[in-house]
Amino acid sequence: MDDLRIGSIKRKQKITIIVDGKKIVAYKGETVLAALIASGYKILKTNPVSHEPRGAFCGMGICFECTMTIDGVPNTRACMTEVREGMTVETNDQK
Ligand code: FES
Fold first, then answer.
1. Which atom in ligand 1 lies closest to the alpha carbon of residue 80?
2. Residues with Cβ within 6 A of ligand 1?
3. What does the alpha-carbon distance between residue 61 and residue 32 come to, in Å, rounded to a whole number?
4. Which CATH number fits domain 14-90: 3.40.50.970, 3.10.20.440, 3.30.565.10, 3.40.50.10310?
5. pLDDT (tens digit, 9 = 90+) per residue, 8-32?
6. pLDDT of 31-58, one tens digit each?
7. pLDDT band at 93 (very low <50, low <70, confident <90, very high)
8. Which residues of 14-38 are buried (b: 16+ CB within 10 A; e: fewer)?
9. C-alpha atoms less than 13 angstroms from C-alpha of 13 in its C-beta half-sphere
């Protein structure tokens, strides 16, 4: 998938994180949510009752729409978690 980041910004070190078993590019200092959005992820989970797709809403730790399992810890807010090399992320997408 294409990188959707703005090209003119100087970034820190390029790293790799594992999302649902797939490697994606991230940069030190980014949040998990920023790395996911830049890699084209829009659906982060589905509603367990209606099965409708859900995505991030606030991007600042308020709505809890971005919760996922990060490094084995469930219900972690992706928008409040900084990436690190080799981090594992499960988006909780129930597709
Ligand atoms: S997007 Fe709202 S808490 Fe993360």
1. 4
2. 56-59, 61-66, 77, 79
3. 12
4. 3.10.20.440
5. 788 889 999 999 999 999 999 999 9
6. 999 999 999 999 998 888 999 999 999 9
7. low
8. ebebebeeeebbbbeebbbbbbbbb
9. 7
Q: How far is the CA of 63 from the centre of ligand 1 (A)?
A: 5
Atom number, ligand 1, closest to the C-alpha of residue 63: 2
Distance 61 CA to ligand 1 centre (A): 4
Q: What is the pTM of this model?
A: 0.88
Mutate to test the pocket of ligand 1, among 65, 81, 92 (most ligand atoms within 8 A of CB): 65
